[in-house]
Design goal:
With 320 residues, the protein is of the alpha+beta class. The chain has two domains: 7-141, Orthogonal Bundle (Arc Repressor Mutant, subunit A), CATH 1.10.10.10; 155-319, 2-Layer Sandwich (Alpha-D-Glucose-1,6-Bisphosphate, Chain A, domain 4). Helix content is 43%, strand content 21%. It has ten helices and seven strands. The strands form two sheets. The protein has a five-stranded antiparallel beta sheet with strand order 3-7-6-5-4. Strands 1-2 form a two-stranded antiparallel ribbon. Strand 4 (208-216) and strand 5 (225-235) form a beta hairpin. Helix 1 (7-22) packs across helix 3 (42-54), helix 1 crosses helix 6 and helix 8 (185-198) crosses helix 9. The termini are far apart.
């Protein structure tokens, strides 16, 4: 089970910690300073900080001496508040067991236990102050923090990637689709499985996809819209994650292109790590596979018959 925050939740928490560590100084922090401390993508930082402002956890001030600052001392802000500012209320959105026997029409047998577990997690998060987390962050920076035996961090190798695909759909229409749908885990899973088959691993087990999302970096339908494409992937060969800026650029009135630029982080534990060329090649293949599937799914949407016809003609021409 994946217990990590979404990428947006990750960024909001990092930013909150940065503001907590600066709180005693009394001066607002500029976006560029927060970006430098947290490695939150610059194009996404203002939206992340806006989440904290909307949640009542931070205030912003314009001008030369302006910036962002916590709305109250970090000792008075708990971790649950920060998590919910990004992720929404902590509660189960659907039955833990999903669809079940017809006798489960009103409630499933796991409901009570699942509700208690959710409540206990919320209680633990609300009992931990942002000041405590910021103090741990400072201790890690200074080498004073004792690494627990169940720590999940490992060294990572980074591959810089960029790619683009054409989409038989007008840019505003594609932007509308991407604004409505955030979860693209199935596209990532299919891409990784296909790459495994091409590498000669037909019996390669399906990857465990922790998260794959496309989140808007800009608001409104514009000719060129930006998104954050991010995923975490756990598979038999190891763990990795990707973060990149995805842009929708118009080609003409009926077509556009998806262009992405970002970083693939491959975690390296014990054992022989993949070679540099091997890792780069595989990362490129997976990214290309994800982009192709996103393009195909938006082209073949039920309300886009003309896009489906144009896409079919294009694929036929390529095959010929």
């Amino acid at each position: 089970m994946n217990m990590t925050l979404s990428k947006r939740g990750d960024y909001v928490m990092r930013s909150a910690i940065a503001l907590a560590r600066a709180y005693q100084g009394g001066k607002p922090r500029k976006i560029r300073e927060i970006v430098a401390d947290t490695e939150v993508p610059r194009t996404f930082a203002s939206q992340i900080l806006s989440d904290l402002v909307r949640g009542g956890l931070a205030v912003s001030r314009a001008g030369r001496e302006g910036g962002y600052r916590l709305s109250r001392p970090p000792e008075e802000i708990n971790v649950l508040e920060v998590v919910e500012a990004a992720e929404g209320p902590l509660r189960a959105e659907r039955c833990a067991l999903g669809e079940g026997p017809c006798r489960w029409e009103d409630v499933c047998p796991l409901h009570e236990t699942w509700t208690q577990a959710t409540s206990q997690l919320a209680e633990l998060l609300s009992g931990t102050s942002l000041a405590e987390v910021a103090a741990r962050d400072a201790a890690i920076d200074e080498g004073r923090y004792q690494v627990p035996p169940d720590a999940h961090r490992s060294h990572a190798r980074v591959v810089e990637l960029s790619d683009l695909v054409h989409v038989e759909l007008a840019a505003p229409a594609l932007g509308e689709v991407l604004g409505e749908r955030r979860n693209w885990s199935a596209a990532l899973g299919a891409a990784v499985h296909e790459v495994g088959e091409l590498e000669g691993g037909a019996a390669h087990p399906s990857p465990l996809v922790a998260d794959c999302s496309i989140d808007p970096l800009t608001t409104g339908a514009t000719a060129a819209s930006a998104y954050l494409l991010a995923w975490r992937l756990s598979e038999p060969g190891g763990r990795s994650h990707f973060e990149g800026e995805l842009r929708v650029e118009p080609v003409d009135a009926e077509r556009c292109e998806l262009a992405v630029s970002g970083s693939w982080h491959q975690e390296v534990d014990s054992g022989a790590p993949p070679g540099t060329e091997e890792l780069q090649d595989r990362a490129r293949r997976v990214l290309r596979g994800v982009l192709r599937r996103v393009a195909r799914e938006v082209e073949e949407g039920p309300s886009r018959p003309l896009a489906r016809q144009r896409a079919a003609r294009r694929r036929s021409a390529v095959a010929g």
